[in-house]
Amino acid sequence: xxxxxxxxxxxxxxxISAALPFEGQSQVNGNDYFTVKQAKGAPTVSLxxxxxPYKEVTLAxxxxxxxxxxxxxxxxxxxxxxxxxxxxxxxxxxxxxxALAQWANAESQLRAAGVRYxxxxxxxxxxxxxxxxxxxxxxxxxxxxxxxxxxxxxxxGVERHADLYSSGVQITQAQNSLVAARSQIQAIDAKxxxxxxxxxxxxxxxxxxxxxxxxxxxGQPLLVFADVEYLQVLVDVPARLRPGISEGMMxxxxxxxxxxxxxxxxxxxxxxxxxxRHTVKVKFDLPQGVSAxxxxxxxxxxxxxxPARNYPVIPVSALRYNGSLPGVYVLGPExxxxxxLIRVGESLEGGYVSVLSGLSAGERVLxxxxxxxxxxxxxxxxxx
Length: 384
Fold this sequence. Notes:
28% of the residues lie in helices and 36% in strands. It contains 4 helices and 22 strands.
């Protein structure tokens, strides 16, 4: 985004400087004069907007807990992945240790069940002879088992199948215990991750809502984090002006600091208008390093619904004020500058201003009158 934006804004600046150069400059008696031009085209409307970060997120608590770590204060920069806020996770760690113990027990049970199943498979208990020389065992060996075999009431295959099935059930139970322990550990690990709020991208802390020791509940905001390397101007554009702009279009904005005019690019046009105000939100990309979030800026938007402009244009540097009255030094018939009061209109790109009355195209005015230039201000107001 950065390379394309810089290239677009640079191209726009070159185009603007080429469109309105001081090619009407000339020198008379050592003074630089500008030949008044006639501006043509669609008039522009100055719309106020707010400078906003290119990306901004509000990080909120995902778990209840006490804040044990806060990375910094407003204005501090962090790289992507840095821990910004951490909640106390001692209880979660204790639960994880308990789940790990259950995991170990389940693994032991699974191994024991596997051994029993293998023993039954290769050395069935149903075919083994009861050991011992006690009277009950001797009685079974000498009378009970021979009689069962003779009468056919003892079925060793059925007994072996039952023993194998019992051993298989024990294996399944141990496997289920292992899965349950693993799931419990995964759930605790997820909560441990949620206990830490990480920087989603390179940026700065814009605003923090918590301090170390605060008790949080899920959903409560922790801080606002933003990418301020690239900035935008958010403007509410009246619906009637919406057809005159399109994404990628290059316009001009006047910054609140120093009244600097810089190029901007239409980055995003919201698809739906505000039902109450009948305006459409539009974002404009700013060049790097010209402003800061929260600043005020005025974007010059073309108004194709108004009559085409056809009025004189002069450099802003040519204006001089007596109080609140604007005026310019016009080259007189004798080659001397003569003061003339004028009525100015809108500010234009490239450091120009329109003149509503008092000047005509073709006249020549001092481009930048010095302190020593005088044509006799009337009244007691100071020239500035």
